[in-house]
Design a protein that fits this description.
This protein has an eight-stranded parallel sheet with strand order 3-2-1-4-5-6-7-14, covered by helices on one side. Strands 10-9-8-11-12-13 form a six-stranded parallel sheet. The protein has helices at about 20-30, 35-50, 55-65, 70-80, 85-100, 105-115, 125-135, 135-150, 155-165, 170-185, 190-200, 205-220, 255-265, 285-290, 305-315, 330-335, 405, 420-435, 450-460, 475-480, 500-505, 525-530, 540-555, 555-565, 565-570, 580-595; strands at about 240-245, 270-275, 295-300, 320, 340-345, 360-365, 380-385, 410-415, 440, 470, 490, 510-515, 540, 605. α5 runs antiparallel to α6. By secondary structure, it is α/β, with parallel strands linked by helices.
């Protein structure tokens, strides 16, 4: 039963605070991690001394250790109230408020701590996290810089500053931040994985350089680790396979839109699916996705070796990483080789760099045979089709192309701002200057200073801000409806849109994409090939991109006709049908398993149609 926190007595205690011996005993119990005894002792003291702020502070800390977050928050509120000049008390309250998602109150508490002590370590860092979670990116950047000035040997703040400046489109600066984090702590592999993700966005980084960096990551993270903790005794080629999927994205996330339709079509007689979910987010997507798995494990609290051991204990035959070098990945668990066969797929369009990862799944539209083999540690497996897409429920209807009523073309982009590279902005502005009556909508810009920055980027390239309209991040229904204001999308490069392209096509809006020399730069090719637009909306040079944009801007009737065809094209696309994708996927798993059972080496292969 939840114990009530002690209430103040109506009469004042004769003694206003406990003795030095009492408080020393609290500290001793805290340092010895005797948490149950500490909670009991602190509560007993507070019955006698209900206004002793230090005891409230200790109680708040131990309740957090014990997972009693609501009670911990209440104790920390009391501590901050009784100790108005104690920066730590306000800081602790900020942490508790942040943990339960009360961001505005958490911000206020961190700012109060910093007002008391401007040099309080980690207060600026946690304030930056709160600001970042409120899409106040430029304010978060400033907060992280203040933390670095106070605490330069704190690897996490360099890493988070890298995340912020990446979102602001400053890829070179982000790379510097991640490398500084690694200089402070060479074993802080989250910074390394963020570095690799950023390199995939950078047009100045060659595929060879990105590949070599991934290999260095793989070597670093694998040092002093002996792989193969799995058991390989049961090599029955006809057995029902246990397939483990590891992801932090089983919620309303881009990856979920691609994976959900496949999960629904799996042959449960041949495959048993087990999820390893590395997140605490739980929404309607999560609840639906859970129903497709026979086993579901929440693993965020597990260490890498614990997660690997869990998969091995579960008897996983094939372990699939769905994250790569994206947020919430658990690649380090795959270093231990918890399953005989390990695959990376879907979440990240490049190599993991791990020698323990066996395969990466592609198809010929996305990765023509032989094109990128040299840039993967994994062996590439060609499926008949590697991608399908979940269309959003209750989507708004497709409307006429807006140029018919506006009298001018409206371009659009709804990609993440980290994809708005300098070459992308250069090319878009050339298009806008070639079509002087055209306007452009940019979505997903929730930070006003970031909007000003983007306005300046367009202005200095000769495109006045009057031709631009910005929208903050919207709900899914409002976001889909916003496509009704766009004639066609201009894609980003070298990292194309994925989910954004799928949404646009579903809403009848074609996407003009620039195919690049990486998997990340061919996402547009894949999606457009599904609706047979690869010859009309895929450019292979900046000159071709501009000419295609001009041609379609002068063909409003063609845009109108296409607009009312695209939804049916997506519905009827054979390559996009989940059952077609799953058939090839399951066949690939069977081939991999049969090769393993026969003790054959891991090699690239093509799954027959």
């Amino acid at each position: 039963m939840k114990k009530p926190l002690p209430k103040s007595f109506a009469k004042k205690s004769v003694i206003s605070q406990p003795s030095q011996a009492d408080t020393s005993h609290l500290v001793e119990l805290f340092n010895q991690n005797k948490n149950d005894e500490l909670e009991k002792t602190a509560r007993s003291l507070l019955v006698k001394y209900p206004k002793h702020g230090f005891t409230w502070k200790v109680l708040g800390a131990v309740l957090q250790r014990l997972g009693k977050l609501d009670e911990s928050l209440e104790a920390k509120r009391k501590s901050a109230e009784l100790l108005p000049q104690d920066a730590e008390a306000s800081y602790n309250l900020g942490n508790a408020l942040n943990e339960v998602g009360k961001l505005a109150e958490a911000e206020e508490s961190y700012r109060r701590a910093l007002k008391i002590n401007p040099n309080f370590k980690k207060a600026n860092y946690n304030l930056g996290l709160v600001l970042q979670n409120q899409n106040r990116t430029t304010e978060a950047e400033a907060s992280y810089h203040r933390e670095i000035a106070i605490n330069p040997n704190f690897a996490e703040v360099h890493n988070n500053l890298g995340n912020v400046v990446k979102d602001l489109g400053n890829l070179a600066e982000a790379e510097i931040c991640y490398r500084r984090a690694l200089a402070v702590n060479p074993h802080f592999f989250q910074a390394y994985t963020n570095l690799l993700y950023t390199l995939a966005h950078n047009p100045d980084i060659s595929p060879e350089a990105a590949f070599q960096e991934a290999v260095r990551f793989g070597d670093a993270v694998s040092q002093n680790i002996k792989p193969a903790i799995h058991s390989s005794e049961n090599r029955d080629p006809a057995k029902r396979l246990r397939v483990g999927m590891v992801s932090g994205d089983f919620w309303n996330h881009a990856v979920a839109y691609f994976i959900e339709p496949l999960l629904a079509c799996f042959d449960k007689n041949q495959f048993e699916l087990v999820a390893y979910y590395n997140n605490t987010k739980n929404d309607n997507f999560t609840q639906r996705i859970k129903t497709y798995f026979s086993g579901w494990r929440d693993v965020e609290a597990l260490s890498d070796i614990q997660l690997a051991q869990q998969m091995a204990n579960d008897g996983i035959d094939i372990a699939i990483d769905l994250s790569g070098h994206t947020d919430k990945n658990r690649l380090q668990a795959f270093v231990y080789k918890p399953a005989p066969i390990q695959i990376s797929w879907l979440g990240y369009p490049a190599t993991t760099g791990l020698k323990t990862m066996d395969y990466y799944l592609v198809d010929n539209d996305w990765c023509p045979v032989g094109m990128f083999d040299n840039y993967f540690v994994e062996k590439l497996v060609q499926l008949p089709s590697a991608l399908t897409f979940t269309v959003p429920e209750n989507s708004p209807p497709v409307v006429d192309t807006p140029a018919l009523k506006n009298g001018h073309i409206t371009f659009g982009s709804f990609n993440r701002t980290s994809k708005l590279t300098q070459p992308t902005l250069d090319l878009w502005c050339e298009v806008l200057k070639e079509i002087p009556t055209a306007k452009m909508i940019l979505g997903n810009v929730s930070d006003e200073p970031l909007q000003r920055q983007l306005e300046n980027e367009f202005s200095r390239r000769g495109v006045p801000v009057e031709r631009l309209t910005f929208y903050a991040k919207k709900s899914i229904s409002d976001y889909l409806a916003l496509h009704g204001e766009v004639d066609f999308i201009l894609d980003t490069f070298p990292y194309n849109g994925g989910t954004t392209t799928g949404f646009a096509l579903w809403m009848g809006v074609p996407v003009l994409t620039y195919a690049w020399e990486s998997l990340a730069g061919r996402g547009g090719v894949v999606m457009l090939s599904r609706v047979e637009l690869q010859n009309d909306f895929v450019a292979h040079s900046s000159e071709e991109f501009i000419e295609m944009a001009k041609a379609w801007a002068n063909n409003v009737d063609g845009l109108q006709n296409l607009r009312h065809q695209l939804r049916d094209r997506m519905k009827n696309s054979q390559k996009s049908k989940p059952e077609h994708v799953v058939a090839g996927f399951q066949a690939a798993l069977k081939i991999m398993w049969q090769r393993f059972c026969a003790s054959l080496p891991v090699e690239s292969f093509t799954v027959p149609q």
